[in-house]
Amino acid sequence: MADRSDIHDRLAASLRAARKARGLSLDAAAKLSGVSRSMVSQIERGESSPTVATLWALTQALQLDFAGLLESRPAPGIDVTRAGTAPVIQRGGVTIRILSAPESIGAHEVYELVFAPGAQLVSDAHSHGCREHLTVLEGRLSVTSGDATEDLNPGDVARYPADRAHEIAAGAAAARAILIVQDS
To answer: How many CB atoms are located within 10 Å of the residue 114 CB?
Structure first.
């Protein structure tokens, strides 16, 4: 039988790989599972022994097989996230679908944003040097970064600092966009 530290290491690696494979940040995994961000981080670093209830919540949020959690599986040749299975977060009238490839987590994250009429996505400052690239696909959006605001139409691309408070807002009609968050 594997020793306790080996089990912790394998569990940590499996959960971290599953989270990244689904394009989830620690915050997103915490929101989806109901487990605190700090606990998810501690588990992924092998610094915490999670309860069965905590593991169950994480495996459900990450769409993992609880029974096969400690098995190692070869990586597929093509990693596909089907349209209906991409992780989705709802935030104040905005549907955020996570499109990030696992290998891009931490470098850049990709999201599809669908705004209900009048909805806003308000964000605190991200890490120093972080930038966002917003492409409007349908409808109209306004983006504010610090004191600057721009109105955007379909096809417009806005690139702006995200290491300050920023906001994306829809007008009177629904809108859809792709957002890339690029960390320096």
So the answer is: 20
